[in-house]
Amino acid sequence: MNRLNTNKFFVWRDSVMYLGESFDPDLHSHHAVQCCIALTGKLKIRWDGVEQWQQCNAAIIGANVNHSILCVDGSVCLLYLEKSSNNYQTILDYHCTDSSCQIKKKPLLISKPLPPELVQELLRGCFSDIDTAMANQLKRSCLTFFNGYISSENTLDPRIGVLLAQMHLQPEQSFSGRDLAQTISLSESRMQHLFKQQVGIPIRRYILWMKLRHVLELTLEGSTLTEAAHAAGFADSAHFSRTFKAMFGIPPSFLMKPSARLFSLFCD
Asked: Average per-residue pLDDT in the chain?
């Protein structure tokens, strides 16, 4: 299927990536960290206390920073990361090397020229059919540019594999840390440490991302939003929509409406 006229939305267990037209000019905030790249032209960004649009080639917008972003000249790449992930922590470690860093209060603007090979790679992603391997490579290229953590391909600890299998078989369940720890015969604190070490984000945050993803998968398979929300353990579709918007700053209805021309891919 030709993807020339579609925007792209790739979903992982701790992040999502959007390739396509700019869409969020209104001031807003969200829990996920947003790493932004202008693929053509410049990004225009403003935030609380700054009325005039500021221009840059790329930006990092911390969790819960009220902002507005626009790329009037073309397409953007937006990579949303879990704020407690290893990915984001290494980005912070690289860019915030002194106490004056304000990335948690205002966007960090990157004005240096973008690597041409990165821009061309992302533009090809905008106008090509994409599979999981290609989406994973695009994410790795973006993380490399922002100096984010690149996870290894090491074999997962079998105890964590048991937990992941259990959670994905019952996405509607509200698992307690104690019960999950008992499943693999560890203390709760040891289980939490091992999970973060192996997966890259805390187990509670993983469960939330898993549930959000499960709703999107079910709706794309034909379920109503209400049916999908209940199946993932949300009280109703409104509860899911509020949670999704709080995480990403956009209502899920934006992604699902036909005019969005969105191609979605679940990558792990």
From this structure: 89
| CB neighbour class for 197 (10 Å; exposed up to 12, middle 13-18, buried from 19) | exposed
With a cut of 50, which residues of the chain have pLDDT below it? 1-4
Q: Which of 220, 264, 261, 212 is nearest to 237 (CA)?
A: 212
pLDDT at position 53, please? 93
Joined together, the tokens standing for residue 29 give 């905030």
Residue 259 neighbours by CB under 8 Å, 6+ apart = none
pLDDT at 7: 87
Domains and CATH numbers, the chain: 7-145 (2.60.120.10), 158-199+202-253 (1.10.10.60)
pLDDT at 155: 76
48's CB contacts (< 8 A; 6+ apart) are 27, 66, 67, 106
The residues near 235 (Cβ < 8 Å, ≥ 6 apart) are 229
Angle at 16 between CA 262 and CA 178, to 5 degrees: 130
> Which pLDDT does position 204 carry in this prediction?
94
As a whole-number percent, the residues of the chain with pLDDT over 70 amount to 95
Number of Cβ atoms within 10 Å of the Cβ of 243: 18
